[in-house]
Inverse folding.
């Protein structure tokens, strides 16, 4: 069995972590990073067999306990099931990584795809936070990460609805960071750049400069907890965020991001 890292997450926040959207890609990388740091895991996603496979592997490698919940995060009822499943746990870290990405021109998108993006990317984190944050506040400790994107910093043609939902998560997390830090609960938003995940490969046909692996992005995000409301992993991503958000006129920033999102499929 690999040796666990000596890490302060369990001491600072609690012994259990929950990862929503854990079945593959960045969510699975977060789960592995948390298990390596000695945290027991609640893994949530629609695809139960993938969750079970990941859970078995992490339990064998790191000796942590695993609970797998096959739930659709677009379902309004998931939050109640989730709250029941974690009742009594010392839940210390919550990661909301799930996302739906309607790709292509807005007017060509199916209504169902746009509605699902709002359900998973906006209503999903709202419902999860309402179900879990009060317990963290009452215990006086915890950490929450909402996954956003650099595309949420300005309009992003060809993924306009996805980018708009990610902007929502940035503003929500920053407000909650201030509200809850006095109660011992850290809230952060991770504005990640492009990563070579299965979801990215399904939507985009090329890599971009400065891409991090999911493992590296997850590690840097967890290492950044407690340092402020916004985490941007990777030097090139931080430079891009400064360029797009502060240095370029808004019209120029939108044109620039359109050059990369025009390859979305």
């Amino acid at each position: 069995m690999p040796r666990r890292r000596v890490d302060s997450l369990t001491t600072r926040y609690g012994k259990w972590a929950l990862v929503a959207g854990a079945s593959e890609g960045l969510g699975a990388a977060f789960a592995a990073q948390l298990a390596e740091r000695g945290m027991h895991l609640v893994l949530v996603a629609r695809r139960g067999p993938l969750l079970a496979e990941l859970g078995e592997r992490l339990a064998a490698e790191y000796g942590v306990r695993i609970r797998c919940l096959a739930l659709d995060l677009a379902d309004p009822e998931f939050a109640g099931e989730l709250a029941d499943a974690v009742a009594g746990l010392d839940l210390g870290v919550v990661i909301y990584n799930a996302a739906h990405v309607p790709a292509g021109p807005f007017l060509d998108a199916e209504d169902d795809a746009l509605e699902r993006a709002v359900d998973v990317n906006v209503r999903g984190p709202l419902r999860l936070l309402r179900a879990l944050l009060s317990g963290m506040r009452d215990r006086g400790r915890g950490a929450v990460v909402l996954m956003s994107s650099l595309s949420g910093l300005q309009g992003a043609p060809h993924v306009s609805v996805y980018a708009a939902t990610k902007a929502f998560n940035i503003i929500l997390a920053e407000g909650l960071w201030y509200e809850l830090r006095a109660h011992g609960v850290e809230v952060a938003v991770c504005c990640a750049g492009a990563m070579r995940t299965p979801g990215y490969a399904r939507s985009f046909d090329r890599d971009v400069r400065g891409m991090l692996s999911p493992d590296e992005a997850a590690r840097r995000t967890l290492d950044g907890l407690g340092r402020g409301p916004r985490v941007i992993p990777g030097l090139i991503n931080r430079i891009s965020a400064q360029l797009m958000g502060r240095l370029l006129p808004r019209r120029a920033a939108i044109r620039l991001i359109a050059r990369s999102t025009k390859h979305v499929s």
User: Anything to note?
Assistant: The chain has one domain: 9-261. The first strand starts at residue 16 and ends at 20. The mean pLDDT is 90. The domain at 9-261 is CATH 3.40.50.720 (Rossmann fold).
